[in-house]
């Protein structure tokens, strides 16, 4: 097939000849370029090629955008030299951040690693990480400004550094070091230093927080014993009044994003929630949903196993971004009051107790007399308000009870539990969430009857869940639930009429 232009005459012939020449020169140039490239690939070390590519990209950027001035920040994996070497947190953060921004569909080449992780319970998990191969670049746009990241591999000249496998995850591979270059227009230097770099750090922290496996810690003596936390409850699966649910999520989000606010007002960054309601209404599920939402660990404190001196250790060894849960606090309060009434605990030796104050040296071994003293409620509360609040950040305490009316007023006083959340019987909206969770149905011919029954019967979400769990067939399950609700309604109206009869009898006897 002839692709040359067809024109007549001498002029046409000359033009054709010139075109042919130009084409053949272009072909030779292209062939030379390919040859030079493959020779360079064979002969030049990767680090030199990476440096050339990086320089070329900067030149392109500079000349492509007029006479703009450019700045480059060199982010090394380690800082300092010799034995004084320190990991550069920005390097790790930048890699983590970039792994969330790199798009394998848009880039011809990307590094990929799977990192094995092991939690404290010894279980294995995997995290996928994408990274820039040495010599590659990517552009990240932040607030409309372009920031170019380039990965470079440097030789450290024969070792000395830490020896790691060069798997792209560590900053150092044998005597080679990976460096990230961050380039931007000089006019955006302030933005880069004051906003973009902090943004990279925060985003990386959020990614790590999201990816890590959560733990639930149980107290054993003065130590926490931790397990992987797998509770699947989320706010989406939690069956409850939607407005209340939304307000809880909003409250948690506000709390988690208020580091500066808490610092400014000089208050410890903590928040307390009291969950109350009948058994089986989702109080434990709510704690799990909170932990999954915020990516916090749970510390489930069993006070019956704790003596006062253990408590201080347990509370101060909790990590930040965690939820301290004390279930059935009314029972604990009873036990505490009995201990005080029965004079079992003459000395409320719990650190931070009302009269005791917080000792200056918490590491000191407690005197033998204090070792077996019971925990008093005021001691617990003062300790939580005092040392627990200031020994860490971003902490939540959740107390649960089936009987709010039995609680000591000290627990309910304003400022102690910031939000009191009633977990009630299964309402219509809560049922719809359960039906969606179990069968992915939003409507069914039995729904109107179930709605009417739920308005008349007190049934817990746990009871409804149990009925729905019995079969995979929504028709059978919903029919079973309808029958169950009808029976419950009859039982409840029978009990009601018996109570009324008794009352009537009493009145007549008078
Ligand atoms: N509000 C709810 N939303 C979704 N599922 C629920 C809810 N309440 C209860 N369930 C179901 O019932 C089971 C038991 O509920 P959960 O332990 O959370 O209740 P609880 O109020 O903490 O009970 P208790 O007071 O006895 O500790 C859960 O595993 C869940 O399957």
Structural account:
The longest helix has 36 residues, at 474-509. α3 (89-101) crosses α4 (189-211), α12 (428-439) packs parallel to α14 (461-468) and α13 packs parallel to α15. The protein has 15 helices and 16 strands. The protein has three domains: 36-211, no CATH class; 215-422, Rossmann fold, CATH 3.40.50.300; 428-509, no CATH class. The strands form four sheets. Strands 11-10-13-14-15-12-16 form a seven-stranded mixed β-sheet, with helices on both faces. Strands 1, 6, 7, 8 and 9 form a five-stranded antiparallel β-sheet that branches. The chain has a two-stranded antiparallel ribbon with strand order 2-3. It has 510 residues and is α/β, with parallel strands linked by helices. It has helices at 9-43, 46-64, 89-101, 189-211, 242-256, 259-265, 283-294, 308-316, 329-341, 377-390, 409-412, 428-439, 447-456, 461-468, 474-509; strands at residues 70-76, 78-79, 86-87, 111-118, 124-131, 137-142, 145-155, 172-173, 176-185, 215-220, 223-228, 270-276, 297-300, 322-326, 395-401, 419-422. The N and C termini lie far apart (117 Å). The chain is 45% helix and 19% strand. Residues 1-13, 158-173 and 339-372 have low confidence and may be disordered.
């Amino acid at each position: 097939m002839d692709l040359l232009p067809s024109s007549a005459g001498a002029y046409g012939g000359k033009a054709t000849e010139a075109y042919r020449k130009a084409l053949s020169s272009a072909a030779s140039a292209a062939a030379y370029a390919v040859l030079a490239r493959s020779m360079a690939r064979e002969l030049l070390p990767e680090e030199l090629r990476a440096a050339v590519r990086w320089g070329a990209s900067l030149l392109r950027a500079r000349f492509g955008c007029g006479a703009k001035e450019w700045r480059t920040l060199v982010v090394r994996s380690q800082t300092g030299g010799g034995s004084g070497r320190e990991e550069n947190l920005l390097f790790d953060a930048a890699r983590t951040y970039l792994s969330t921004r790199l798009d394998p569909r848009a880039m011809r080449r990307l590094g990929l690693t799977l990192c094995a992780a092991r939690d404290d319970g010894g279980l294995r998990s995997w995290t996928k990480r994408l990274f820039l191969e040495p010599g590659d670049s990517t552009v990240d746009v932040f607030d409309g400004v372009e920031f170019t990241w380039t990965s470079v591999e440097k030789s450290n000249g024969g070792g000395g550094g830490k020896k790691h496998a060069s798997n792209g995850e560590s900053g150092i591979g044998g005597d080679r070091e990976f460096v990230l270059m961050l380039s931007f227009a000089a006019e955006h230097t302030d933005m880069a230093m004051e906003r973009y770099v902090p943004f990279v750090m925060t985003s990386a922290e959020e990614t790590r927080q999201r990816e890590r496996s959560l733990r639930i810690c149980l107290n054993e003596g003065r130590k926490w014993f931790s397990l992987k936390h797998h509770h699947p409850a989320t706010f989406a699966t939690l069956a409850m009044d939607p407005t209340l649910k939304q307000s809880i999520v909003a409250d948690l989000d506000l709390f988690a994003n208020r580091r500066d606010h808490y610092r400014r007002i000089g208050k410890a960054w903590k928040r307390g929630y009291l969950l109350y309601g009948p058994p089986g209404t989702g109080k434990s599920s709510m704690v799990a949903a909170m932990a999954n939402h915020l990516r916090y660990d749970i510390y489930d404190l069993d006070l019956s196993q704790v003596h006062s001196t253990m408590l201080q250790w347990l509370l101060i060894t909790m990590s930040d971004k965690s939820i301290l849960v004390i279930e059935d606090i009314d029972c604990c309060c009873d036990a505490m009051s009995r201990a005080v009434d029965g004079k079992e605990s003459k000395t409320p030796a719990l650190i931070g107790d009302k009269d005791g104050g917080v000792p200056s040296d918490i590491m000191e071994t407690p005197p033998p007399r204090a070792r077996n003293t019971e925990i008093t409620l005021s001691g617990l509360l003062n300790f939580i308000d005092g040392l627990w609040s200031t020994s860490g950040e971003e902490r939540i305490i959740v107390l649960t009870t089936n009987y709010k009316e039995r609680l000591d007023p000290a627990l309910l006083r304003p400022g102690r539990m910031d939000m009191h959340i009633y977990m009630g019987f299964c309402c219509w909206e809560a049922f719809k969430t359960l039906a969606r969770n179990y069968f992915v149905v939003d409507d069914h011919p039995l729904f109107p009857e179930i709605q009417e029954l739920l308005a008349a019967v007190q049934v817990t979400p746990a009871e409804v869940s149990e009925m729905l769990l019995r079969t995979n067939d929504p028709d059978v399950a919903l029919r079973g639930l309808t029958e169950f609700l009808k029976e419950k309604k009859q039982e409840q109206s029978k009990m009601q009429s018996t109570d009324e009869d008794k009352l009537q009898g009493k009145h007549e006897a008078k």
